[in-house]
Write a structure and sequence with these properties.
By secondary structure, this protein is α+β, with helices and mostly antiparallel strands. It is built from 6 helices and 10 strands. The protein has 2 domains: 1-154, 2-Layer Sandwich (HIT family, subunit A), CATH 3.30.428; 165-308, HIT-like (HIT family, subunit A), CATH 3.30.428.10.
């Protein structure tokens, strides 16, 4: 296993810096974030020091993905949030070298302010507060992980989702309409879903990975569907770096209307990163539409950059 001297996440993998784990596997650790963006925020890291999920082996990447799904379920059960923002951080290389890739799962609440400022500007919660979060999550996260490993994961019903959605039905869903027509700017497709260039781009070259079925929540996908979609995402991360020569990338899931996501149909949004992440968020619906010709050029570049 590769770790790096001075990396805070590697220190935690080696037990040399303190945090409070919720789930630990051979390849992955999910822990309560020391700095809480909103109550219940979690950090998910691979044990091996890599800069992107795409650099992990398939076994390592799928293990990380199973852990994310398991703690997501535990978060819904323990906290019943109004929405969830999940992302894999897009940190740039700096004087310390290659960043250690990590995911963040943050519950959102209608009555709690949410911010996009850097993690180090967030409040440091006490060990007792973080331990209380972990204790609420561990039983359900552990149970769900065993189901994920057996590929017999339960599929939650729409009535089990605690979030609110503005337009939850497939009728009138913009992504369902795009899939039915066949995306004009498609990059790649698998049985479970399709990757195509986004019509509104917070960063030049933004793309979407969309399940074919109209679902609102990751755990409405069968484990095999979810894994196939995640492996498509992983290929798209490689293509994004190659096609746009960007120093970093980020992928997000905004689930629930509180996140200002304009469509309820579940999807990953992949964003090339050319500079430090912004500390503010502009809702997607407020961005201008990208010229179709530019989207076609971007799709062609990404198709040519896809790994086998």
């Amino acid at each position: 296993m590769t770790t790096r001297t001075g990396c805070v996440f590697c220190l935690r993998v080696r037990g040399e810096d303190h945090w409070i784990p919720v789930l630990e596997t051979e390849h992955t650790i999910a822990a309560v974030s020391n700095h809480q963006r909103s109550p219940g925020c979690l950090t998910i890291i691979p044990r091996r020091h890599v800069a992107s999920i795409a650099e992990l082996s398939e076994a390592e990447a799928l293990d990380w993905h199973r852990v994310v799904r398991s703690i997501w379920r535990a978060t819904d059960v323990a906290h019943t949030p109004d929405a969830v923002h999940f992302w894999q951080g897009g940190r740039l290389f700096d004087e310390t070298g290659r960043p250690h890739v990590h995911g963040r799962l943050c519950p959102r609440y209608a009555d709690v302010e949410y911010t996009f400022v850097p993690n180090y500007e967030l409040p440091l919660w006490s060990e007792a507060e973080r331990q209380a979060i972990a204790e609420r999550l561990i039983p359900e996260a552990t149970r769900w992980l065993e189901l994920e490993r057996s590929m017999q994961g339960e599929v939650i019903a729409e009535s089990d989702i605690p979030y609110a959605f503005d337009r939850p039905d497939a009728d009138g869903c913009a992504l369902c309409a795009t899939l039915a027509e066949g995306p004009a700017h498609e990059i790649a497709a698998v049985d479970a879903g399709v990757a195509f260039v986004a019509s509104r781009q917070p960063f030049v070259g933004t793309t979407l990975v969309v399940p074919r079925r109209h679902v609102l929540h990751p755990l409405q996908l069968q484990p095999r569907e979810a894994q196939e979609l995640f492996l498509l995402l992983r290929r798209l991360l490689v293509a994004t770096d190659r096609a746009f020569e960007c120093p970093s990338h980020q992928f997000n899931m905004y689930v629930g209307s509180l996140t200002d996501e304009p469509v309820s149909h579940l999807h990953y949004r992949v964003e090339p990163r050319y500079d430090k992440p912004p500390s503010t968020y502009t809702p997607i619906a407020q961005l201008p539409k990208v010229d179709p010709g530019l989207r076609a050029t971007q799709a062609q570049a990404l198709r040519g950059a896809l790994p086998a």
